[in-house]
What we know:
Strand content: 5-15%
Number of helices: 11
Order of helices and strands: HHHHHHHEEHHHHEEEEE
Low-confidence stretches: 78-86, 307-362
Number of strands: 7
Helix content: 55-70%
Oligomer: single chain
Radius of gyration: 27 Å
Mean pLDDT: 75
Amino acid sequence: MPRRGIAIAVVVIFASLIVLGLTSSFLVDWAWFSAVGYLGVFWTILGGKAVLFFAVFAGAAALLWLNGYLAHRFARRQAHVRRVDFEQIARGVQTLPELLGLMGQRLPWRLLIAGVAVVLGILVAAGEVGNWGVLLRCVYQVPYGLSDPQYGKDIGFYLFSLPAYVALKNWLLLMLVLSFLIAGAVYWVRGDIEFDEQRRSISAAAISHGSALLGLFFAVKAWSYGLDRYQLLYGDNGVVVGASYTDTHIGLPVLWLLVGLSIIAALACWANFRVCTWKLPVAGAVLVFGSSLHCFRSCSSGPTSCSWRSPISNATSTSPSRHTISIRSRSNPSRWSRTSPSRSFRPTRRRSTISGCGTGSR
Length: 362
């Protein structure tokens, strides 16, 4: 009883410190925005953070719980389940499979899966709440009035929409990876996945579930490679800032190839529902990641490195307001002039640059 009281006191103190820190930060920001006459901006920012947090939390917790629940439901049932003394059996457990089988019978699976989903959902939401600026810029975006000559997109797409798409893509990939880990852990503890000296096997339910998640992963990767096409305009290969001739004529077709291979891999994984073998998902993974690695090595070892080989990883670092987008004309992209023997080559045609929210020409 004293230990339980100490544990409760520690939890209460820890929660009080967190609430105190959040309250102090809230009051300081509220006082500052009120003093400068921008209280409406404060409430807009606070509302954006709250909406983003609860939306990410609800989506993450629901997806993780669903995958854990499906894994628990379709996992193999034990042939005999009888109530016995846990300590007495634990003394006789000699191998890891026996211990896992004992855990599979005794663990409160539904409560455990729900608790893990809630905790991970809170952690993911706390990490994503920093993208509140990306969310607000996407919601309140307006047309910029200029289009890039490479894709014909309005500049507002690069400033407001693209960072939001990248953040959404990263969140989906994270959710798929966490769902795969949770489902795999449930199948492993329940005995559907066995890798020991005596036996190595994976049940049909585990293979089908993993194939579905892997197919969704490849579908999101196809979308990711599609977004990388627009990120070519952020490239800097040391000679030209923006989409170079190599990016346009080599990097862009390679990205389209990776999009196609990812779609093929996703379809192969979903077709594995009928076959239920581990070979098709593995072949799809080798096809996509092997091709991507080969293209990366080929591009990095070439005379002019491709800018697409360093894709933007998150929305915070990809915000166009922190980068310079260089957009050059398509006509005669290979026309260059040497300014001096020791200087790098520069294009002779005028190019428009976008830095932050202003425009200029060089």
